[in-house]
Amino acid sequence: MKFGKKELGAYGFGAIGKDMVYALSASFVMYYYQDILGISAAFVGTILMIARVFDAINDPFMGVIVAKTNTKWGRFRPWVLLGTVLNAIVLVVMFNVPALEGSALRTFFSVIYILWGVTYTMMDIPYWSMIPAVTDNAKDRETMSVIGRTFAGVGNALITVGTVICVAMLGQGNERAGFGRFAIIVAVIFVIAELVLFLCIKETKNEEKMETVSISEMFRSLFSNDQAMVTVITIVLINTALYITSNLIIYFFKYDVGGAGWQGTYTLFSSVGGASQILGMMLIYPLLRKKFSNTQIFKICLTSAITGYALLLIVCLLGFAHSIGILLVPGILVFLSNGILTVLTTVFLSASVDYGELKTGHREESVIFSMQTFVVKLASGVAVFMTGIGMTMIGLVGNADTEGEIVAQSASTLMGLRLLMTIIPIIGLIAAFFVFKNKFILDDAKSEEIAAELKARREKA
């Protein structure tokens, strides 16, 4: 089957659209419902955690449904298109809430957010699973995976950088209206992107059998592979720290840094942070790799991220939070380190697959990498729950009047916000450092030794 730039471009465009939607929900739902609509942060955090856990559990079931699908358009593309249309509708409704209050508003949020997660899974699982059905060439499959992950990062960055400014422009001082209009724009881009994918990519008639993984299989494989367990625990700790930061940073700029131009300051910080993350993955990591082993780089980056959070706290405590130039220093440290850590956790997970094969005789690549998606979603749920409870405890008052006037927070609330945003991530990253340092054994030499032994076994067999 013909496969070329058109198909790659369509797949990448689809990744941009779907991750714009995901980033808008993951980073701004808490802010929209708590700060703008006035639902308690603890309630929002609890619902977000329940929805993320349900979403993580729902993934394997969606995989089974997709695997059993057989239509004239293929197995995967119909689900991508159907899930996209439904998710786009839910997204628009989620950010264009009718005039509800109290328990009615809380019930609406609970239902609509869980619906959003279900419909997103409906298109996300087949999007990533369709690669073997599009091309049977190993190099093309690898290229598709790289294009998908890279363009997904672009979609995420567009939302991180552009949301606050676009909402301000579209709402003209009314954040509620601004978010509603912006959600419509993102939903339209999403539908167009996946429609292009649907029309430009064709599935082969003889698709490979799609592997489906149950939750019990995930945990069985995890508990029988101590190095996969260490890597997963490390991923949970790192991602929990990252998600706590991503959920709180907008509150920090709005209420602590403050000022009439806080949206521009937030956008500048996010832009530099996003660029640093990409720079870390694409440039700094290859340079470090020339001199250090992967395990050494991992420890360096964890230490760097911890240092960045500590510097951020010191900057705030010394009264320099209003200086964007000073804030960018710890921000670059944290984001750059996180970019490299993201690459390395994937590398270590791959090494744990080889380790498990050597130890048990079974290669469970799909199971282990399904676990990665599962635990990242669980970490996200735990993070938003902790964020919601934390904001309720520090007494943060939302800006729910929609009149554009920023509510002044007490000194104790601002101090609590600074501590939540820095101390909890520091504790998580320190825990990750010691778990990794004391339990992870798959350094470069060990990984090469295992790979050589597996190769010898296969040749002998």
Order of helices and strands: HHHHHHHHHHHHHHH
Mean pLDDT: 86
- Main sheet properties: none
Distance between the termini: 33 Å
Number of beta strands: 0
Number of domains: 2
Note the overall shape: globular
- Poorly predicted ranges: none
Task: Determine the structural class based on helices, strands and strand pairing.
Answer: mainly alpha
Strand % is under 5%
What's the CATH H-level superfamily name of the largest domain?
Answer: MFS general substrate transporter like domains
What topology emerges from the helices and strands here?
Blueprint: H1 5-36, H2 41-67, H3 77-94, H4 102-129, H5 131-134, H6 138-171, H7 175-200, H8 215-223, H9 226-257, H10 262-289, H11 294-317, H12 324-360, H13 365-394, H14 411-439, H15 444-460
Overview of the structural elements:
The chain has 461 residues and is mainly alpha-helical. It is 81% helix and 0% strand. Helix 9 (226-257) runs antiparallel to helix 10 (262-289). The radius of gyration is 22 Å and the shape is globular.
Q: Brief overview, please?
A:
With 461 residues, the protein is mostly helical.
Provide key terms for this protein.
about 450 residues; mainly alpha; 2 domains; 15 helices
